[in-house]
Amino acid sequence: MSVLVFDWGGTGIKHALWKNEKVEQQGIFPTPSTWDELKNKMKEVKETHKNEELEGVAISSPGAVNSEKGIIEGISAIPYIHHFPIQKELEAFFELPVSFENDANAAGIAEVWKGAAKEYKDVLFLVLGTGVGGAVIKDGKVQTGAHLYGGEFGLMYMDEKHSFSAVGTAVKMSDRYCVRNNVPKGTYSGKEVFAFADAGDKIAQEEEEKFYNYVAQGVFSLQFTMDPECIVIGGGVSAKPGLLDEINKRVKILFDAHEIKDFFPVIKVCEFHNDANLIGAVATFYQQQA
């Protein structure tokens, strides 16, 4: 038995087969412009696995996934998936059970299920991408909150003007670097700015320092919001060598400033990276079918 799994994104739809306890036969197609086109492309993918015995379809999706109602609330980069009984429609379309999970939540679930936080039950998953997102996991299950905004850490304010999403990512770090060098935003990537800092560029070093400080401030605040066993950092920047050392160093400064000596947070980087949403969608499918 296997599960057909999709990760819906604003520019691309990833797909794979979950079989033998791992992701296999991965592929991707551009995100269609209409709902009917998306369904048809997904059906084409299903046809390529016609010799498989499928248990169901697992989907990682943007937006506020309301599992009880079987709809996707809120807004996202795929506007046509919202505010109708999407789960029921797809179950009829595929003639299989279908599950949905928010993409950031799915990534967090993956790390608790089989990844960096598999030995923990109470975990915060912090995604540093273009903006900041995340997931709250309690007793091994996602806590979406009363209004499905649990884990929207990017809306936290770092100061009186700036949210976490506005300042706490490598993308925003590179934007600040570009502005200070009087070139259009996007001229340099976060990876390039880190390299410039390593090479001695003073502006790059200042912006890199701000980035690490913002992330440490966010981690510190989140630790004392839920007091999780572990905080896992995901997103593209999580692959940067030395990231954890820099964050831990700055979090310790904050702990020392408040004279907190009882414990120190367990902070890890994600294990699954680009496969996390797919794996977490499968974990959600099994939870919902149990």
From TrEMBL:
Belongs to the ROK (NagC/XylR) family. GO terms for molecular function: kinase activity. Keywords: Kinase, Transferase. PANTHER family: ROK (REPRESSOR, ORF, KINASE) FAMILY, SUGAR KINASE. It holds the Pfam family ROK. InterPro entries: ATPase_NBD, ROK. This is N-acetylmannosamine kinase. Coiled coil: none annotated. The keyword Transferase applies. It comes from Vagococcus fessus.
